Amino acid sequence: MGKQINEREVVLEILMEITENGAYSHKILGDVLSKYQYLEKRERAFITRVVEGTLEHMIEIDYILNQISKTKVKKMKPVIRNLLRSSVYQLKYMDSVPDHAVCSEAVKLAVRKGFSGLRGYVNGVLRNVVRKMDEIEYPKEDVQRLSVKYSVPEWILSLWKKEYGEEITEKMAADFQKEKPITIRCCMNRVTPEVLKEKLEAEGAKVEAHPYLPYAFYLSDYDYLEGVVDICEKSGVHTKFIPDYSSLIPSRPYTEDLMGLPVINIRYVPLTNTGNMVIKRAMDIVGSIFGIIITSPIMLISAILVKLSSPGPVIFKQERVGLHNKPFYMYKFRSMAMQTAAEEKKGWTVRNDPRVTGIGKVLRRTSIDELPQLFNILKGDMSLVGPRPERPQFVEKFKEEIPRYMVKHQVRPGLTGWAQVNGLRGDSSIKKRIEYDIYYIENWTIGFDIKIILMTFFTGFINKNAY
């Protein structure tokens, strides 16, 4: 009965539903395999591999087709486009399928689908792919090259590159192409490992002992996962799935629904919620206005002292990196002698720095020099509480050296922060600061902000590392 079904035609129909009609790949593939349960195991495995492989490598496949065909992928007829995509995947990634068979079957399928006039075009494109596959040059630019090589959209790679640097970005992209083994664990009080292994093998699955856990197995050569769950349920075993993405998920992941598709978000950031953003921004506006009014006498006296202490402007403006990596100018009372831009970029302040003026030492030690940032907060560049902003040259340096450094830019930088009230400011460990910043970002509440503000009043203004 299975012989009546053409595997490649099933593949084409599934790809058409996904790419042209917006069907969810996991759902349509599962529905088709459930519908054709009488198909032989080899046929089911072929359909699954070609559909999933074509989707996983689609950016690369489309790039190859655009290099070979005069008609670009976007302008091809939908049936021909998806037929060529699935065929190129077989040619490039399935050595077990002869090239001539791929070309021949594609031509036959084009004719069956009513495109007999394009059979020569299909045959010519695929044979040129076979001949020129190894000659195709991939883009030179990093993001474009990685996008084509690993079939990851350029916009995602650009975000990753900013967050994690080029090396980690390529590792993350490559990881998406690695096959993850299905691991199952036997619930010992319900069934023995030997019995469960026997039942799975009876269903045609290949079961391999886990190298470290005597009650767990690697499962392969089994394309019907629902059947595995059914076997476990019949044995009274409670089933759980463990996604193997530990190398990519460094903190607190959570699941959410994206247009009906379950996705894993690798970091929980409460301030991406609109309601939370509005509350925090309202607190910043009210707090900054109140702060400006209360501290205005202190700021006035400080301004006079700065002006009298040394020549130069009262307010010092310095470029910093803020929310979503956007630069802004942060305000401070000038606490150093005037310097050129080149001198300023040499490094940050150290103990007994000769550039700091006499009044500047007092301002820095008491953090009064930071008070003009209340105006940055009112403008929306900063927040009352958040990770402290850094200069662009140091951001470029630290993002390559410190894992997850760029996560801090997912929220507005702050006048004070969780790291600062715990003594991490000035010449202190950047890595440790980032740990505290990420903890704040992932655990934000309005109560946490209030706690940090109160701690700032009692412990944060005067600090041994502020000089």
SSE topology sketch:
Blueprint: H1 7-19, H2 25-35, H3 41-56, H4 58-68, H5 78-93, H6 99-112, H7 119-132, H8 142-150, H9 154-164, H10 166-175, E1 182-185, H11 193-202, E2 206-209, E3 216-220, H12 225-234, E4 254-258, E5 261-265, H13 274-309, E6 315-321, E7 327-333, H14 341-344, H15 358-366, H16 373-379, E8 383-385, H17 392-401, E9 414-416, H18 418-421, H19 430-442, H20 446-460
Parallel strand pairs: 8-9
Antiparallel strand pairs: 1-3, 2-3, 4-5, 6-7
Helix pairs in contact: 1-2, 1-3, 1-5, 3-5, 4-5, 4-8, 5-6, 5-7, 6-7, 8-9, 8-10, 9-10, 13-15, 13-16
The class by helix and strand makeup works out as mainly alpha
Mean pLDDT: 84
Strand runs, count: 9
- Runs with pLDDT <50, length 5+? none
Multimerization status: single chain
Overall 3D form: elongated
Report the order of strands and helices. HHHHHHHHHHEHEEHEEHEEHHHEHEHHH
Strand content: 5-15%
How helical, in percent, are the residues? Answer: 40-55%
Largest sheet: 3 strands, antiparallel
Strand order of the largest sheet: 1-3-2
- Rg to the nearest angstrom? 30 Å
Distance from first to last alpha carbon: 82 Å
Count of DSSP H/I helices? 20
Short synopsis of the structure:
This protein has helices spanning about 5-20, 25-35, 40-55, 60-70, 80-95, 100-110, 120-130, 140-150, 155-165, 165-175, 195-200, 225-235, 275-310, 340-345, 360-365, 375-380, 390-400, 420, 430-440, 445-460, and strands at about 180-185, 205-210, 215-220, 255-260, 260-265, 315-320, 325-335, 385, 415. With about 475 residues, it is mainly alpha-helical. It is elongated.
